[in-house]
Design a protein that fits this description.
about 120 residues; mainly alpha
Length: about 120
């Protein structure tokens, strides 16, 4: 179930939006960062095929940690990129967990009660 984290995040996001009145800017930030991350994976996949300069794994992981992990996860599945490399996968999963924990913490700290 590679898409389970996305489904769980959608539910968490909806809950946080209802419970703490998150501004739409939060969703927009996740969308833009996810698109950026997806493009970074696509460029890295293209570079790998061409045996050209590659995007450092640190960059891909940092983009995921910053909120782009949904795009990174989709890129991994749709482009079949970085899915077989176990050392990358556990780091990626760690960045997803850290981002989700930070999302919940920030939502509770800075969100407001719905009117």
């Amino acid at each position: 179930m590679p898409y389970l984290p996305l489904i769980l995040f959608a539910g968490l996001y909806l809950f946080a939006t209802a419970a703490w009145a998150l501004p739409p800017l939060v969703g927009a930030a996740y969308l833009v960062t996810s698109l950026t991350c997806f493009v970074a994976y696509a460029l890295d996949k293209s570079a790998a095929r061409a045996k050209a300069w590659r995007t450092p794994e640190f960059t891909l992981l940092a983009l995921g940690l910053a909120g782009g992990w949904p795009g990174g996860l989709l890129a991994q599945q749709w482009l079949r990129h970085k899915t077989a490399k176990a050392s990358f996968q556990w780091k990626f999963q760690l960045t997803v967990a850290l981002n989700l924990a930070l999302f919940v913490w920030l939502s509770r700290q800075f969100g407001s009660s719905p009117v």
